[in-house]
Amino acid sequence: xxxxxxxxxxxxxxxxxxxxxxxxxxxxxxxxxxxxxxxxxxxxxxxxxxxxxxxxxxxxxxxxxxxxxxxxxxxxxxxxxxxxxxxxxxxxxxxxxxxxxxxxxxxxxxxxxxxxxxxxxxxxxxxxxxxxxxxxxxxxxxxxxxxxxxxxxxxxxxxxxxxxxxxxxxxxxxxxxxxxxxxxxxxxxxxxxxxxxxxxxxxxxxxxxxxxxxxxxxxxxxxxxxxxxxxxxxxxxxxxxxxxxxxxxxxxxxxxxxxxxxxxxxxxxxxxxxxxxxxxxxxxxxxxxxxxxxxxxxxxxxxxxxxxxxxxxxxxxxxxxxxxxxxxxxxxxxxxxxxxxxxxxxxxxxxxxxxxxxxxxxxxxxxxxxxxxxxxxxxxxxxxxxxxxxxxxxxxxxxxxxxxxxxxxxxxxxxxxxxxxxxxxxxxxxxxxxxxxxxxxxxxxxxxxxxxxxxxxxxxxxxxxxxxxxxxxxxxxxxxxxxxxxxxxxxxxxxxxxxxxxxxxxxxxxxxxxxxxxxxxxxxxxxxxxxxxxxxxxxxx
Length: 541
Known about the structure:
The structure is a single chain. By secondary structure, the protein is an alpha/beta fold. The chain is 53% helix and 7% strand. The protein has helices at residues 4-7, 20-32, 49-60, 75-81, 99-109, 131-142, 162-165, 178-192, 198-207, 212-226, 232-239, 244-255, 259-271, 276-292, 298-301, 306-316, 321-338, 344-357, 375-378, 395-402, 404-412, 422-436, 439-451, 466-481, 491-494, 507-523, and strands at residues 38-42, 88-92, 119-124, 148-154, 169-172, 195-196, 229-230, 456-457, 460-463, 495-497. The chain has a five-stranded parallel β-sheet with strand order 2-3-4-1-5, covered by helices on one side. The chain has a three-stranded mixed β-sheet with strand order 8-9-10. Strands 6-7 form a two-stranded parallel ribbon.
């Protein structure tokens, strides 16, 4: 049984995928009879170079071509289909690269075709010919007999001598887009009676890196592994690639700045056999997709299954464009350093920690139109009477103008919360923590549930563990980005972290500190590691 790549190999120009700029020119050459005698097909592997060469050889010898396409019915086309045509010669230059091989080919060119119009010589991987072989080929390539057509194919155009290129019509083949590979795979799956998930086909197409032949070969391999039902899980397991959900989860940990969980996830990924290069490369592609969704051209740039697009949009809305650009630059920096790193595992850990601590993770909120406050709250004393003539201002006015209290009083005022009550804002925040369903949210929620019932300092809720304070602040930023009507409120309007004074603590302070220590460790045993944050220099504990 033929492989899928051979079974579904195009037999007409119209079947070739994503190379219309070439197939149109070749069809028109057949229709008009202007057949070039030397052609050079260049491009990546698996994009249709040899296929187009065979279709062209078949078409120019066809007895009744249809609109530049081979008819497939005449004796010449039938012989070509059965590999018995005497007019088509294929040479692999990788194994026949000596000057003697080219001399034998030149000897064959001297004899006209026994049947048909043209003798077609397809030389694959022509860049592998030796320097002397190229030189021996030059004269024949420049002035071949009227019945001879040479089609050269190569993946490395830069290795071809300029004198060879100047004697050929050059056609540059393109990489095949992921979307078109997916369409072709979907067609093949339908013809073969295979049920395949779109996510699975997309992963195969992306893994093939623009080569349709490679995609079809992978498809064959995966069908042998999974049977007649191909799932995304089957593809990730068989090809040993990271599940895309991993990058969603890693990005979530970055957003909430959960460095311990990030390091734990990287350890699990590394233990599963994935190296640092492919992990960072996959994370960069995920962040790039998120950045694409921040632009108006996302639909043209984004190549992901529809099932993932909505989830990508939701995550993209929680990150600022400036952060995504900074994150991509950071990953690029660490990817470059991996080449020379003695400990790639540690280098990847540093990359994750830096990603979680970059500034401006969440988008800047658009501030609603500010209402004008009374002049006494916004301007210094000298600006409260704008119509006063400065030259008529008395000494008392001058003293008032230069008074430190008056000059700095507008700056001392703390930002005020919005009109909604503090309790309502905190309750909304805690409801969001309840629905967020993460370990960080649960820990902060448990602490705040008891903290809001205790005494306040300057009208704010006191948080006595600095680690919880920082985690609550990060979560509050995420919540605030989803509740734009709270645009005027800041975390510092509502919460304050307990500050233990430096210096020698008296007995009263020492007793108070010890009580705090005992209560915290009793309520939160897992917080013992963070108590050291409160152990400021010369404090009682």
